[in-house]
Design goal:
heterodimer; A: 112 residues; mainly beta; 7-stranded mixed sheet; globular; B: 113 residues; 6-stranded mixed sheet; 5-stranded antiparallel sheet; 0% helix
């Protein structure tokens, strides 16, 4: 069974640009979660989508947004990139809301 | 006070040693406890998932939860060089709409052959 997949693996942007990160959950999983892992800060919860709806949001500014598509894949958009947005962005999926979360390999975003 | 505290290490042990990793937490609403292993430049991999206080064993790994003390542990027996990674504790509240995981900062473990 294929795990959670994320694309691209690496992304390099400059300040002020926009970044789009993509996630495909494990087949049959309906919930998708996004986390940011910045150096020295640990993993921090960003967003949770379930059945196409945003269900919960972490303590991040509105320029972090996303959506979940009918096939349950998800997209994270980061607008007006800042240097401190440089981090590993991890996507996780679960079979249903609240079930065990399985993580993808992450997208490493570098903002120059 | 952070919700979850975890000693970042680094922790270096010889092959075959017993490793003890710990986290403390302050939020009494946390009911589910997990340990993830993360190799360098990879995503976290679920090792253990527990709900109740007590011990749960899976091969060389034992997870221990003490809700009264708000303290969780992961023990690794007969540690191997392949166990070298960052170990993350994670916690989750029960029910409602708050299914996010709250993580410790991770402990970097090196097992030396």
């Amino acid at each position: 069974e294929a795990g959670v997949t994320q694309s691209p693996t690496h992304l390099i942007k400059t300040r002020g640009q926009q970044a789009t990160l993509r996630c495909s959950p494990i087949s049959g999983h309906t919930s998708v979660y996004w986390y940011q892992q910045a150096l020295g800060l640990g993993l921090q919860f960003l967003l949770w989508y379930d059945e196409g709806e945003e269900r919960n949001r972490g303590n991040f500014p509105p320029r972090f947004s996303g959506r979940q598509f009918p096939n349950y894949s998800s997209e994270l958009n980061v607008n007006a990139l800042e240097l401190e947005d440089s981090a590993l962005y991890l996507c996780a999926s679960s079979l249903e809301a609240g079930a065990v979360q399985f993580f993808g390999p992450g997208t490493r975003l570098t903002v120059l | 006070q952070k919700e979850v505290e975890q000693d970042p290490g680094p922790l270096s042990v010889p092959e075959g040693a017993i490793v003890s990793l710990n986290c403390t937490y302050s939020n009494s609403a946390f009911q589910y406890f997990m340990w993830y292993r993360q190799y360098s430049r990879k995503g976290p991999e679920l090792l253990m998932y527990t709900y109740s206080s007590g011990n749960k064993e899976d091969g060389r790994f034992t997870a221990q939860v003490d809700k009264s003390s708000k303290y969780i542990s992961l023990f690794i027996r007969d540690s191997q060089p392949s166990d070298s990674a960052t170990y993350l504790c994670a916690m989750k509240e029960s029910g409602g709409s708050n299914y996010k995981l709250t993580f410790g900062k991770g402990t970097l473990l090196t097992v030396n052959p």
